[in-house]
Amino acid sequence: MFYEVRPVIVVLMSAPPAPRPATEPSAHPAAPPAAPPGAPVAADLPARRPALDWRLRFAALSLIWGFSFLLIKVGTDAYAPFQVTFGRLVSGTAVLAVVMAVRRERLPRSARTWGHLAVAAFFLNALPFSLFAYAELTIPSTLAGICNATSPLWGMALSLVALSEDRPTRRRVAGLGLGFLGVLTVLGAWQGFSGLDFGGTAMALLASLSYPVGWIYVRRTLAGDSASTLALTGSQLFLGTVQLAVVTPLFTGLPGGFPLGPTLAVLALGALGTGLAVLLQYGLVQEVGPTTAQMVTYFIPVIATAAGVAVLGEELSWNTPVGALVVLAGAALTQSRPRAA
After folding, report:
1. What is the 3-state secondary structure (H, E, C) of the chain?
2. What is the pTM of this model?
């Protein structure tokens, strides 16, 4: 998923929506419809009559992002975590590169922009993608998907400190407290976290924290850039790919083989979950607005959990789905705003 900060949309895997400032104009939301940085405008993407009804595209986006955690788990069965992330970024970048070539998008020209995009690529792509891949070596994909749903909670907490326009309200503070109560429920805090792999869970939560850190950085540095949303996103993914191309050989050797299942999982993770999903999200934001588009966030952990249990046979205790619902309720509260009088 991604967070929006007009005019940048930064691609993530399934990051939930970032907090919205109380003074945010409805026409140009500063937080994304479903997770990093500004709603695309007509100048970025020409209006076209969509071939599919928006509800079908909404469902497709929910499924793509919801199945991302299952695909990571399958990919790590044969490849090292950095290899999974590298393959994901390569295929995701390739999809956006083709679209940019067809639309004749121009790459950013400013060295300053490229520098900021490199930082954004680290926090919004290279770091969280790799952390989730490492986390799923020791935790089920269901838990990783639920940990990912904590991103808006981290974002709310960070924005109250880092963004002066985000003012704490009773509703937001209540949502924050409720959300983290849900996290403790998922982790089984009353049982002393027994049976839980602390390292893997910590990496998944850190990956979820990385998204709002990157979103806040992008919002502070690239909100006024003149390049198109698609060009900025494609360039950011390219820089993330370069970062993984440098890091991966330092920690892993060449794959011993290319088994069909894990290879297809990694390619689908990038081409669908990191490439096509962004384009679907663009269309949804443009057609139905960020408020409706961001609702996809709340389907992701549900689908991730269902996929992990049904396809991978992962076990599920009662506190996992109950805690996930509490997390989502808290996240929804942090994103909501009181009705105007």
Report:
1. CEEEECCEEEECCCCCCCCCCCCCCCCCCCCCCCCCCCCCCCCCCCCCCCCCCHHHHHHHHHHHHHCHHHHHHHHCCCCCHHHHHHHHHHHHHHHHHHHHHHHCCCCCCCHHHHHHHHHHHHHHHHHHHHHHHHHCCCCCHHHHHHHHCCHHHHHHHHHHHHCCCCCCCHHHHHHHHHHHHHHHHHHCHHHCCCCCCHHHHHHHHHHHHHHHHHHHHHHHHCCCCCCCHHHHHHHHHHHHHHHHHHHHHHHCCCCCCCCHHHHHHHHHHHHHHHHHHHHHHHHHHHHHCHHHHHHHHHCHHHHHHHHHHHCCCCCCCCHHHHHHHHHHHHHHHHHCCCCCC
2. 0.81
